[in-house]
Structures are given as C-alpha cells and as structure tokens.
User: Fold this.
Amino acid sequence: MTRVLLSGNEAVAQGAWEAGAEVGVGYPGTPSTQALEHFATLPDVYAEWAPNEKVALEVAIGVSLAGGRSFTTMKHVGLNVAADPLFTLAYTGVNGGLVIFVADDPGIHSSQNEQDSRNYAAFAHIPMLEPADPSEAHEMGAYAFGLSERFDTPVLIRSTVRLSHAKSMVATGRCRDVRERPPYKKDIGKWVMMPGMARARRVELDARIACLAEYAEDSPLNQVELRDFGLGVVCAGVSYLHAREALPDASTFKLGMAYPLPAKALKAFAEKAERLIVIEEADDFLARSLRSLGILIEAVEAPRAGELSPGLIRQALGIGAPTLRDAPSIALPPRPPLLCPGCPHRPVFAALRKTRAVVTGDIGCYTLGTLAPLSAMDACIDMGASVGMAHGIALAGGVGKQPVVAVIGDSTFAHSGITGLVNSVYNSGSAETIVILDNRITAMTGHQGNPVNGITLQERESCELGLEQLAKAVGVGRVRVVDSQDIPAVEAALKEEIAAPELSVIVFKAPCALLLREKRGPYAVDAEQCAGCNICVRLGCPAIGRDEGSGRAYIDESVCVGCGQCEQVCRFSAIVLPSAAPSSATSYTTGGAQ
Amino acid sequence: MTPTTIMLCGVGGQGTILAADLLAKAAAASGYEVKLSEIHGMAQRGGSVDTVVRFGEAVYSPMTDIGMVDHLVGFEVIETLRRIQFVRPGGRLLVNRRLIPPLPVLTGDTLCPQGVEEALAQEGAEFIDADALARESGSAKSANVVLIGALSLGLPFDKEVWHEVIAARVPQKTVDANIKAFGLGRQACTKGVGQP
Assistant:
C-alpha cells in the first residue's frame, strides 16, 4: 500500500480500476471531469469521451450486457441527459457491474443550476453511494461494482465539488480484481423492455430495492458513531465532515448509501438520541425520507441553496460564532470570469453586439460572451438549447426587428446541437443564423478531445467530424466556414447570413488561445496615436485597459498573447508591435487531453 | 491539536492550485492529516478564486468559514481584501504586492478601488513582491512558489521536505528555478522586508 494525495475524482476512478472496471466512458463536465481522465491513465483499460452522457451510459450498458464492468462519469446536468436510459436500466439490471459516477455542483461554481442527484436514485430506484472524502471515494468506487453484480442493479455514486475537487491522502496499491466475466446469456425477459417484460421487471425492481434496504441495515457502508446522546445527527457525504467539524460531540448516523435507507437501524438510532437532526446540503432529501419512515426529526434552519459549511451548521444550531474582523470599508469591484486573452472567438461576439441580434447562447466558454463589454448573449439554458431556442424565437415572429442568431461551441454542437439543427431544417420556415464557434477543443472543462477535433481520450486513431459537410448533409443550403480572427470577414459573414432569407450556418474556426504554442507580441499602445476612442477596450480583452486619467488605452504586456485583434479594430494605427515580430503565422499545438 | 487552516486566493490562472498542491503534499510528508479544496471550471477563467488547505492530527471538513482562517495568502490585493473577514483576528496575512484590475475597471465602467494596500496594511498584512522575485529566480511564472516560500516560515515543515515536494511536482526543467523562487520568498520574510 502506498499513500498518495488524490482528489475525490481520481480516487473513485482508482477504486473502479481496482474492481476490474475495464471500460470507462463519460462526457466532461465540472466537477466530474478528472474521474474519467484519471481512469484513462490506468493500465489495461479502455476509456473514451462520448459525445454526450446519454450515449456514454448506453455504451456502458452494452459493456455490462456483454459481461464487462463499466464505469461512467458525468456532472449533475449530464445525468439529466442520461436519464432516458437510466430509468429503464434500473428495470433491466446488469450483467457485468455498472457504476455511474455523478458530480453535483452545490453553490453553482461552474454550472447552470444546482441539482441534488440523490433525487434520481429514489426516482429511478437505483442504489446510491455517497462517499465523504477521497479515501471513501476510493473504497466505494471499488465496492460499488460488487454491489452492482450482487443485486443485479446499476449503482450511482454521488459526489459534490467538495469531494470531487477536494484532495486528501488515499492508500492505493491494491491488486486489481481480474475475475472471469459473467457469460452473456440471451434473456429477452431481462433485456428487452417491451410492455409485457417491463411489467414483470417493475415488480422485480421493487423486490430488489426491498432487498437492498434490508442489506443496508447492517451494511458496512452505513456507520453509527455513538458519542453524546444529547444530539444525534443523520448525514451523508461531505455533510458528515461538516457536521463532525461543527458538532464534534454529537452522535452520528453516517449514511454511506443515501438510497435505499436502513429504516430499522435509523429508528433505533433515533430512539437513543434525545434530539435528532438531519444535516444535509442541497435538497432536504434525507429529512423527507426519514419523515416518510415515521422518524421524528427536529427542523434545522440551514439554507437549502448554495453550499453547506461547518459555520452554517453552527449558525443554524445557534452555536457561538467566531470573532470577525471588520468588513472592508472600500467598495470592491466584482471580478467575473472572462474570455481568455487572445480568445480567437472574441471578435465574433464583438461583431454580434454590433448586429443588435437577439442571441441564444449555449454551455461552455462562450457563455462568457454574455458579460459586458461584449454583452452579446440573451439566453443560455442547457447543452444544445441555442439552436432550438433560436428556431422558437423565429417561429414566434422574432423580437421586434432584431435578427435571431444561435451561438454554440464545437463540442456542445456535437453533444446535442445536431438534433436541433435537424429540426430547424426539417421544419423549415425560420431564417435564423446558426453560429458554430469551433475552437478545436472542449475548452472550459480543461481541454478534452471531442468528435469535431477527432482527438480521443487515449489518443487512438480517429477522424474529425466535418461541421460543414454535416450541415450540408442535414439540408442547410447556406453554410460557410470563416476564420474568426479575420475581423472584416467575421463582420461580413454575419451581415450577409443574417440578411439571408433562409436558415444559414456559419462555422467560425480558430483554435483555443490556450493551445497557442508560440506567442507573438506583446503589443503596445502608441500614446501619441491613441485617440481614446475605446474601441479596443470594448473587445473585453483582459490585457487591454483604459487609463483613468488620460482615457487612452494601455496594454499589459504580461497578459497580452499577441493575437492582434486590437490592432485590427484600431482606426488610428495606435496599436503596435514594438519588438520585431516574427513574421510566421502563429502556430498551435495539436491539442489533446491535458 | 486544532487543525491549521490556510486559504490561498487570487485571480484564476495565477497558480493557486499548484501552490495548494505543494502545501498539501508538504503537510502530508510531514506526517499530518491534510485536506485541500479547490474550485475548477468557469471561475478559473480570470475570475476570483480561492483554495483551502487544512492540516493537523485530525481534519474533517475540507471547507472553512469566515473568522476561521489562520493564514491567508493573497496572490492579488483586491482578492485578498475581498476575503479579509475569513482571517481570524491574530491570523497571518501574507500578500503579493500586485493589483490586477478586474474587467469592469479595465473597461472604465468602474473606477479602480483606491487604498487597497493601505487597508490590508491596517489589517497587519506582510507584503512581498512575488512577481519581481519570481523573475529574479529565472521563472517569471513561479510567483506562486515565491509566496509558498514566504508562507513556509510560519509552518512546521522542514525546508528539505519543501524542496523534495517541489522537485517532485514541477516540470523537471524548472526545478532549480522553482527551488530558487521558494528560497527567495522564504528569505524575503526572514529579512522582514515584507513588513509594511
């Protein structure tokens, strides 16, 4: 055994590997991404990024059907996408063990909403494990596979940001479980969910959950820690750690399995404690479950929205607050995230702002085009929504005289923009413009490959999905590919396609600035030429500022990557390359998962 | 022993994640239990970020609360002042003398706040010019390691442990520069030049 510092994501993948998981498949999404990335680095595994979570789960089901053990990873909103196969998979059960790792984002650090995935466990009738720290994630990552095969069920493992992106020491180095696969046996009663078969499986599903609830009564997954009987706390996952920190003397019933619950053991614990409370983050899932078992719990007034912390628990229970320093007396400006310096797709947003279009946006870096000064996005809901929403706005007769434009990234388009485009073309009659910003990578989650760039997780041979050919193949008449760094070309393309009386697709193509290998510049502002017109500042580049005194622009040379967009927009030739710039075009790395 | 809580804060891209990793590894190598919690994703794109490292004989929560931080290491002054209430009275405040204007300031929509350094000095901040020391070390990107060097004097880990952890974690080509950056940060604090 060796002890290494691992994140919850890495640890759960390590556990899955030790259990003999041979195929890993998922879609990147913060905070889940590093689970599959870590799995892919382990020996004798096959791992792939699927275009979306639904496909990922379906691939995993195929592996299981054939008798292999499969490990699937996604973020909370990804589980929505995978929900269709998930609910029926609960009916069929598995052949080889199948474990779905889902990472929630309470506090909405990098998501569009805050969901509590535990509800899916109860909704779909699938057992869910909730590790509290990386060490437990490692144990449960392995344990879940045995549970899956023993009870003929998929198993969900739920994480949150404070597990996925928390690190602590984990004892690794166990041997890998390389047992014989269960044989494939054709069994239509189990695997073909037509009504007649599904009805029978539904009954079996209820029986299985009853068995699991019985198993939970003395499962090592659930741990009762008796300390002071004055206060008993029922908790699971990271909330257990917060509770231990805030209430060190309280007795705890730590649920390692949030669904199904051990009713008898919980009732016995409740009888011992003078006061019983539930400490949990996000929804009141456990509190509702305990109440439905007839267990009386005292209400805790902790906020449901956002993340829980030991301090919030102390506050909710009226335990003394720490002494604080005074709040700063200076008003501090907010620091929203922004598009990187040199982002090659910044000119598209700057040009869109000028068109005064109503812009439906999508998930990924490009959501950052919403914020001032670009201010070029009107809505963002979920992966792929931009395309369907733009069609809908056009069907509603538009918004005043504003043109309608959808903006979507390459990976997001492959994830779920394609079906929207098929719909818009099939139900022709709207003339919106679909803009695909192809930066050759899945950037926001840390540079993963995707079908558009043809880079695979384990660097196997692949091919690029041709966006232009695809758009033409589904029937789009007007398709063009434009270099997003060529500002006049960007403006002209948008102007022409917005004016066109039919649906059109523009693929703006230029690799993510973070793939830059050689940087030009940095640029500088020639103060004598600068008229203080602010046009370069309105690009929203973090390298360009407006001097408060003179009103002229300045460039922070430590931030500038030399993309030259500001030089292109400047009408006074005030932005210059002071050093003799290399004349060769900027070169890029080929990308690849980091 | 009550756990020690350290918060590292700054702007996405400044290297708080690597710094926290070094810190956690040094704590683990010194025999402590350690927990680290960081934020990835959107905030990392030039946004306001913080990472928490806690170590001690037993550590439960990976998170911290206002009034509970023993050492706040600020990579940037506005972000440090934003989190001033996290530092317990008497806690250590170690700040890189650097201001990165947020976008609303760059675009002229908001004025740059005045007196940020002075406000931090009033709270007892020790200042260090980590970016200049990083350039001196030969690796302009190692301001994060300079700050860890400065922090190291207040922590119960041996210098050798730090050196081992740094050598194992940074790219091979940059080991010497990073060890030098660490030393410069540590030295700056020994000399007390960082005092306001």
Notes: Confidence is low (pLDDT under 50) at residues 192-196 of chain B.
